[in-house]
Amino acid sequence: MDFKSWSTERASHFELCAKKALPPDNRLPWKLHEAMRYAVLDGGKRIRPLLAYAAGELVGAKEEALDHIALALEYIHSYSLVHDDMPCMDNDTLRRGKLTTHKKYGEAMGMLTGDALQAQAFYELTQTKLAGDQIAVLVKVLATAAGSAGMCGGQAVDLLSVHQKLDLDTLTLMHRLKTGAMIRASALMGLYAGEQLPPPALIGLIIQYADAIGLAFQVIDDILDVTADTAVLGKTAGKDAAEDKPTYVSILGLNQSRIMAQNEINRALEALKSIEELSEIYQGKTTRLEEIARYILSRDH
Amino acid sequence: MDFKSWSTERASHFELCAKKALPPDNRLPWKLHEAMRYAVLDGGKRIRPLLAYAAGELVGAKEEALDHIALALEYIHSYSLVHDDMPCMDNDTLRRGKLTTHKKYGEAMGMLTGDALQAQAFYELTQTKLAGDQIAVLVKVLATAAGSAGMCGGQAVDLLSVHQKLDLDTLTLMHRLKTGAMIRASALMGLYAGEQLPPPALIGLIIQYADAIGLAFQVIDDILDVTADTAVLGKTAGKDAAEDKPTYVSILGLNQSRIMAQNEINRALEALKSIEELSEIYQGKTTRLEEIARYILSRDH
């Protein structure tokens, strides 16, 4: 199966899982459940689920466990978008080509939707049917990636950096937290879903891979904010410049940004090559991870 | 030790644990960490930690595990207060006698503070040094109580009920979710920290106890909103009536509300009596739980 077919199939499968797992909107409090479903369903590139599925393939993880991990990752990601779009943060009206959650359901409900999705994410991890020790590790990895040492921390740095002149290192630190931490967690959690504890060498290489594609993802995001238009992007283009936010493009320029993204993807591919050399168990099993890396470089939205 | 000494000692002990466990405000992103510490430290009645410690005593749970459980409970509670106080929700300026978190740090940081505290709560559960299976149960109980089937769900019902005439049953359902779910979780998580899985009869009785004091707590809250003044309360008094929110006092009147609170406390005390009769293991070990119930009835803030 080529990457497009695989990723489309995985995304549809994920959508079915999410429809089944999210609290139904005919159960009280139905309005909150409706908003949670609105925030998660029918949208997004599902990069984090794809990463978890692809990393899980490396270690022969069971699909059922990966499904719940994918849900947990996407709930956290979705909640962060809902909160990020609110007036006190980015004040955005469009997301994934539709109204942002708070625009549709009101600000208070938007905040609660995000809050409830975060709790639901940790609940999902308890539904994996993995051993207790594995669930505990998954909770720890996800909580670390989502909290102040990860995503929320990156958003705080981002918040404090508007109208500031950031250097490249600080910008990169911010993104390593803001988006990188959850991308790293996505790949790691796929590994931890395997029956055996992954060997440290594999963990190290998956981190190298994930950190590289995470950074490339962000650089491409900054490039698309300048080069793509709103219709293709599904969110408001040109916002970074309008808001005087530091980006890779504003620091490095378009050309150097493209080179940086390519370099990061190369680093990611090198990590995958080292994984294949690590043991014959992994041989031929990094294809999906490689395709994800190449997709991130070539995406147009 | 009498209740006042015990609860003061536990609250100081909790404070020390929280000071140590919360990310230090000299670590990046320091502003977020400062706000997280501001939201949690130096405030509150610590009812949820007290309940976890008291329930843990019943089953001989280790203090270290209870400490992390107490932290997790209070992080969730604190985050809910931070978000609840924001302009799009209750728009409050005072909490525990000091400025609300978003008033001190700004709205965006307030939202992130709450979000990061929720993640930190689940992280704490992985630090209990309990068996993986126990951690998984604790995560499940906390996530259920905090999410749309619990606290967030109750807040959503609350949100949709302003300016509505609620009947007593709907008001009670709302509070069972909004505050009751986390109070139930506090007692349950104390039990689950014991070395053995608690017997179903004990779980049932602890739930009866916790649900009764949870309801009494809310009825007393509604009474205090009418009868106490802002200085003693540490938050703005008289807000419910000013905002035309349905309360026990508005539906039942002051007198009947007081009787209802007393009845719920009686139900809680009966549950404790049944626990003592369940097995000699529990004899003489429900004293703290009883004192908490009596305190809830008599509190003036």
UniProtKB/TrEMBL annotation, chains A, B:
Pfam family, one: polyprenyl_synt
Gene3D superfamilies: Farnesyl Diphosphate Synthase
Keyword set includes Transferase: yes
Keyword tags: Isoprene biosynthesis, Magnesium, Metal-binding, Transferase
Keyword Mitochondrion: no
The protein's required cofactors: Mg(2+)
Family: Belongs to the FPP/GGPP synthase family.
Protein name: Polyprenyl synthetase family protein
Species annotation: Parasutterella secunda
